[in-house]
Write a structure and sequence with these properties.
Blueprint: H1 2-24, H2 31-45, E1 50-52, E2 56-59, E3 64-66, H3 73-86, H4 94-128, H5 138-174
Antiparallel strand pairs: 1-2, 2-3
Helix pairs in contact: 1-3, 1-4, 2-4, 3-4, 3-5, 4-5
C-alpha cells in the first residue's frame, strides 16, 4: 500500500513538474519534444520545417507554425498519468514501482511525439481541405480535430497497456 501511495505521489510530482515547466517555457525550452515531432511530421508529409528562434518550426510552403502550444506536453502528461494509474496494481515493490514510473515516462514521451505528429499531419490536411458545409470556424475545427486525435491516442495507448499487462500476467501465472 505504501509503495502504491509513493507511486501516486511520484506521478503527481512529475506531472506537476512537467506542467510547471511547460507553463513557464519558451519554445526553445520545449525542443526536446517539438523537434522530434517536427522531424516526424516532415518525414511523413515531405513538408519542410525551419527553426525560427522564439517561434518554433515554420513551413514556408504551408505557412504553418509548430509553436509552443503544438508541443504535445499536455498529451504527454495525460498519457503519463493514465499509464501509471493503469499499472498501479503492479507496483508491489519499490523497484517495480520505479520501473513502472520510468517506463510510463518513456512511453508517454514516445506516444506524445507520435500522436502529436498524427494530429499535426491531420491539421495540415484539414487546412488544405476546408469543409465548406460546416459551421465550424477553422480554429474550432482544429480544436475539435486535436481533441479527437488526443482522445483516440489515449484510448489506443490504454488498450495497448492493458493487452501488455494481461500478457505479462498470463506469462507469470503459467510459468
Amino acid at each position: 500500500m505504501k509503495t502504491k501511495l509513493l507511486m501516486l505521489a511520484l506521478m503527481l510530482a512529475i506531472a506537476w513538474g512537467l506542467k510547471r515547466h511547460y507553463a513557464d517555457a519558451r519554445v526553445e525550452d520545449l525542443s526536446w519534444i517539438i523537434t522530434p515531432t517536427a522531424y516526424l511530421v516532415s518525414a511523413v508529409t515531405g513538408i519542410g520545417f525551419e527553426w525560427r528562434a522564439g517561434e518554433g518550426y515554420f513551413s514556408h510552403d504551408r505557412l504553418f507554425l509548430l509553436e509552443k502550444s503544438c508541443a504535445g506536453v499536455n498529451f504527454m502528461i495525460a498519457a503519463f498519468a493514465m499509464l501509471v494509474l493503469a499499472l498501479l496494481h503492479r507496483g508491489d515493490h519499490a523497484a517495480q514501482a520505479v520501473r513502472i514510473v520510468a517506463g510510463a515516462c518513456a512511453a508517454s514521451y514516445a506516444s506524445a511525439v507520435v500522436v502529436n505528429a498524427v494530429r499535426i499531419v491531420m491539421a495540415l490536411w484539414l487546412a488544405d481541405h476546408p469543409a465548406s458545409t460546416t459551421s465550424l470556424s477553422p480554429a474550432d475545427a482544429h480544436r475539435l480535430e486535436g481533441i479527437a486525435v488526443y482522445f483516440g491516442g489515449l484510448v489506443l495507448l490504454h488498450e495497448l497497456v492493458r493487452r501488455f499487462d494481461r500478457r505479462a500476467f498470463a506469462v507469470v501465472h503459467t510459468s
